[in-house]
Specification:
Layout: H1 9-18, H2 20-25, E1 27-32, E2 38-43, H3 58-63, H4 68-77, E3 81-92, E4 100-105, H5 108-118, E5 124-134, E6 139-151, H6 154-157
Length: 158
């Protein structure tokens, strides 16, 4: 899977949007910043992906930002760092009755803090919060994702 780390943002967007897991759920990566600091993800609501009640399915709301916090951090940190999700929480705030978008942000200053801490040899655990909102701005769900960051051991990067 190391080849994926060499993808440009545009190539990753094409790859993600063709990924069957996202395509089947009607999840689209609308934008990804050239500097890996931002991703905009959209979940459409269709009869094929709606829940029993015709509203947004919680599993799709959970899935829609799944890879992006990790990808944005990993791409900014580079191959010398291991980056993983270790914990995820989701609060369903209100019923999603239409399309939902999420803006995932990974500011360079936060990445620099994680890098500096990881360079001491210790693991870094950091929480990130992302709101999932309808077109009118109302929050449907709020996700918190905890990242694990650690400098790769010498044998893992050679």
């Amino acid at each position: 899977m190391e080849w994926k780390r060499s993808l440009s943002p545009a190539q990753l967007q094409e790859h993600i949007n063709a990924w069957p897991t996202f395509a089947a759920q009607k999840i689209t990566l609308e934008e990804i910043a050239d500097d890996w600091t931002r991703a905009l993800v959209r979940l459409d609501l269709t009869p094929e992906n709606a829940n029993f009640f015709g509203t947004q399915f919680g599993g799709s709301l959970f899935t829609m930002i799944d890879p992006f916090v990790v990808i944005l951090a990993a791409q900014q940190l580079g191959p010398d760092y291991a980056v993983w999700d270790v914990s995820v929480e989701i609060d369903f705030v209100r019923v999603g009755t239409g399309p939902v978008t999420a803006e995932v942000l990974m500011p360079p200053e936060v990445v620099a803090e994680m890098k500096s801490a990881a360079d001491t040899g210790e693991k870094v655990l950091r929480w990130f919060e992302v709101d999932l909102v309808m077109d009118d701005g109302s929050v449907v769900a709020r996700q918190r994702r905890q990242l694990y960051v650690r400098r790769q051991r010498a044998e893992a990067t050679s």
